[in-house]
Amino acid sequence: METIARERSDIELVLNDSPSLKGDVARIIAEESSRVARVTSRMLRLYGEDVGNIAPTYTEEQVLGDGTPGIFSRPHPDPPPLAGEGIGRQLP
Questions:
Q1: What is Dmax (Cα atoms) for the chain?
Q2: pTM exceeds 0.70, yes or no
Q3: Contact residues for 81 (Cβ-Cβ < 8 A; gap 6+)
Q4: CA 29 to CA 77: how far, in whole Å?
Q5: Would you call 57 exposed, middle or buried from its count of C-beta atoms within 10 A (0-12, 13-18, 19+)?
Q6: 70 Cβ contact partners less than 8 Å away, ≥ 6 residues apart
Q7: C-alpha torsion 69→55→24→7, nearest 10
Q8: Contact predicate 64/12, CB 8 Å
Q9: Coil/strand/helix, residue 23
Q10: What are 18-50's pLDDT values in tens digits?
Q11: Distance from C-alpha of 76 to C-alpha of 4, rounded to nearest angstrom
Q12: CB atoms near residue 78 (< 10 Å)
């Protein structure tokens, strides 16, 4: 989450320094989507996650806004175990 906040701050600084770029934000997001999908898939596979083909699509508000885009804004259906409740331990 810190990475998202830091990157948004950096984008905001760039847009403040070059206001003419604000009109290009939607185009840049669309152009970067396929690269982001490839990198994300590759990183998830490194950690043993097979997510198949992902195709993220984000709006300017999701990228630049205060919320968290994509899957992070929805609650996980099965939250991770609490501290001390390791894998293999039966939950009550």
A1: 58
A2: no
A3: 87, 89, 91
A4: 28
A5: exposed
A6: 56, 58, 62
A7: 40
A8: yes
A9: helix
A10: 999 999 999 999 888 888 888 888 888 888 887
A11: 19
A12: 6
- Give the pLDDT confidence score for residue 27 in this predicted structure: 92
Tokens at 48, concatenated: 């043993």
Provide the token pair at 67.
Answer: 């919320």
Question: Position 67: which residue type?
Answer: G
The alpha-helical segments, DSSP class H, found in 1-92 are 2-17, 25-46, 60-64
Least confident of 18-22, 52-56, 75-79: 75-79
Residue with tokens 């099965």, as numbered in its chain: 78
Token pair, residue 36, equals 């982001």
Taking the C-alpha atoms of residue 32 and residue 6, their distance in angstroms, rounded to an integer, is: 18
